[in-house]
Design a protein that fits this description.
twelve-stranded antiparallel beta barrel; two-stranded antiparallel ribbon; Porin; about 10% helix; mainly beta; signal
């Protein structure tokens, strides 16, 4: 653990120097709008021999102020499939439903390349490792790389996580079932956020987030490529991986999601 902390400190020190060099390179960074808002929507509906309905939506907003850079995000996914029950009758059944909300405030420090953050998030997942998860964390963030066409942000800090087990959970503690029970624990959080504007019409993003706890370590990765359709409309192809170190028997530790959506920028 001490080695990990020393490594993080060394990384932040070197990264600060790199950020300063980038800032003094003479290249002008693009101006930021006060509000940067994007809405994303996607739907897949099939009929015939197989009936499936998948809906996905997301709204992101960044608010740039003199001393603060605030981020807001809400997203959700719903999937319904037609299956055949024990009586041989075809019925529709919900197979995926998840909603997430997060708010983060970033207080700018030196030359807008480092910041302190405060984060609150809530996840509601009917089919995941936990029925719901609430996270509150604070920490330090650093813009490791800052160029006119790309940036890389790194964040790390402590937090508290409150999570509720699924009603059908098989987890036990001291011989007692944890189904439907709620627990809390201290966690460590870390995130890497990379964005590369390849051209006026294409953008690549990569986000990796980790929540480390004694009960479970949750890791998320989203890789996305966006191509401009017209002025404010983009098409987004994304691949998301969610991994939980501890899950109920019969559940997979890793979930993946491939999506094709339309993104509108305000």
């Amino acid at each position: 653990m001490k080695f990990k902390l020393l490594s993080l400190c060394a990384l932040m020190t070197v990264s600060s120097q790199l950020a300063a060099e980038e800032n003094n390179s003479g290249k002008k960074l693009p101006e930021e709008k006060e509000w940067d808002i994007t809405s994303e929507v996607g739907a897949i509906i099939t009929s015939g021999n197989t009936e499936t309905t998948t809906l996905k939506g997301e709204i992101k907003a960044k608010h740039h102020l003199d001393n603060w850079r605030n981020e807001y995000k809400i997203d959700g996914i719903f999937k319904e499939d037609e299956i055949e029950n024990d009586d041989g009758v075809k019925v529709k059944e919900r197979t995926n439903e998840k909603y997430s909300l997060s708010v983060q405030g970033n207080y700018k420090l030196v030359d807008d390349h480092s910041h302190l953050f405060i984060l609150g998030s809530y996840d509601s997942d009917y089919f995941g490792a936990y029925r719901s998860e609430s996270v509150f964390s604070i920490g330090y963030g650093l813009r490791v790389l800052s160029r006119p066409n790309m940036y890389l942000d790194f964040e790390v800090g402590p937090g508290i996580k409150r999570f509720e087990y699924q009603e059908n959970s098989t987890e036990t503690k001291d011989g007692q079932s944890l189904a439907g029970e709620t627990e809390s624990e201290a966690i460590g959080v870390a995130k890497l956020d990379y964005e590369w504007t390849i051209s006026d019409n294409a953008k690549f993003t990569q986000v990796i987030a980790i929540e480390y706890g004694d009960t479970n370590t949750k890791s998320e990765s989203e890789t996305a490529l966006m191509a401009k359709v017209n002025g404010s409309l983009q098409m987004k192809v994304a691949y998301k991986i969610t991994h939980n170190s501890e899950v109920d028997a019969g559940k997979e530790k890793t979930d993946t999601e491939t999506s094709l959506t339309l993104v509108y920028s305000f």
